[in-house]
Amino acid sequence: MGRMQQRKGAEGERELSGILREYGYDTQRGGSLTYGSIPDIVGLDNVHIECKRAERLDLLAAIRQSEADAARFKDGMPVVIHRKNRSPWIVSMTLENFMRLYQKGMENK
What we know:
The chain is α+β, with helices and mostly antiparallel strands. It has helices at about 5-20, 60-75, 95-105; strands spanning about 30, 40, 45-55, 75-85, 90.
């Protein structure tokens, strides 16, 4: 990965972590220079976040990366939070994980 991509990734992690803090969650970026030794964003219980800032994203590969890292870190449901320039942040996950999340929410009603 080139320096420009690393810088963009770090900026994305800082931006996303700041937004999550605005929602009241004590999140921090793991650090893009850790080369996968810690997650991209930490602080949301039971959620493993793979953060991507890219104009072209291989979403399936990013979801697979999030699944593998979630299994390795044992930190929760794998999700990919991503955005293009001048676009909103999007959350992507498998249908199976979405349904588990949805059903859990419905149980609490």
